[in-house]
Amino acid sequence: MICAACGKQQDTKANRxxxxxxxxxxxxxxxxxxxxxxxLRAITIPIVGPVDQExxxxxxxxxxxxxxxxxLSNWLLTEFYANDVRRDSKMAKLPPMPATYLYPQARxxxxxxxxxxxxxIEHAVRGKxxxxxxxxIWTCSKSLSNYRYPVPLPMRSxxxxxxxxxxxxxxxxxxxxxxxxTLRLRSGSQxxxxxxxxxxxxxxxxxxxxxxxxxxxxxxxxxxSGIEGRAPGGGQRVHYRVMCKxxxxxxxxxxxxxGAGSITLRSSPDSFWRAEVxxxxxxxxxxxxxxxxxxxxxxxxxxRLITDxxxxxxxxxxxxxxLSEQLASCSEKYGRRIHSxxxxxxxxFTKFAGRQRVARVLYDDSERGFLSxxxxxxxxxxxxxxxxxxxxxxxxxNVDDQAT
Length: 404
Ligand SMILES: [Zn+2]
Hints:
Elements: E1 22-24, E2 27-29, H1 31-37, E3 38-50, H2 55-82, H3 103-109, H4 115-138, E4 153-155, E5 160-164, E6 170-176, E7 179-185, H5 192-202, E8 207-218, E9 227-230, E10 237-251, E11 262-267, E12 273-277, E13 283-286, H6 289-310, H7 317-356, E14 360-364, H8 376-389, E15 393-396, H9 399-403
Parallel strand pairs: 11-14, 14-15
Antiparallel strand pairs: 1-2, 3-7, 3-10, 4-8, 5-6, 6-7, 8-10, 9-10, 11-12, 12-13
Helix pairs in contact: 2-4, 6-7, 7-8
Zinc ion is lined by residues 3, 5-6, 8, 29-30, 32-33.
């Protein structure tokens, strides 16, 4: 295989692309040349409704698909666990995860899900299990978690097509449950950034990747067509909207120039992040004490609600339902807060790194003392994404980074 841009050669088996290489319009590019030209972006736009079809019909097919993706994810997770080692006194350390190939079995169990969807979910669940198995099997500090309905429905790059109708409304053609659908997306000024990327997908300047459909809770006040449901146990009515997440390689702005040198960024025991610029006295700290306070308050709240729930004799079924709804909504609210903190923190640091004009960020998040429970993996993904948009590489310094 020869890179169309730099002429680099690499031997491959049976015309398969080497890792990181990409094919576009009949040409192949090595990982480096591809990364110089494109940047991977995900945009999310809510769906207004199906074109020429009923919402109720769409709700039905999505409901079926999401039941299957959720069931599949939970089945995979328990299979990975069941096939894994059990800790015994002869083990000095946790052995690597056994090679478990579940795809063929998963396909047989879920014949109605497209092969790509099964493969993508298998990959995601495997990754999630791999990062948590140390806590589950070795330290036993966590129990095996559970995927909650609905797990997003992923589709392969050629399974969806973005376009505009004659009035300039953004649409997506897609197959769900073996049927063709045209979905109308929201437009308007608050989606300007997303629509710029969407336009470059329609024009073919961008290289499409995965798309996923999922749902998001929404407040009753915005009257948008969507999905209505009830909390488990038949409590309050909940409103949802369906979101369309589109992933594509977008052309990298020409103005970007590669910097030089590096910054070391670490999680630290007394603050969230600390950074040092190579060969300079410049430092950068993100304290984020407020996140610690949120975490403590959330933990207290949760413990209280769980205690009340367990003390079942004293309360009626109705009161218990109220308590479990409160529990779910407080967890969801906390999750959303943490999620937006992750976005802010990574954006904030990326700005700093951009000002320093570095080529690389050396990243070590192995210290977890400041926050015991935190989506470190998600944070790292966001950081890598944002740095990549500025042409800065993220290099992992953790022990497991060295191993792989
Ligand atoms: Zn190349």
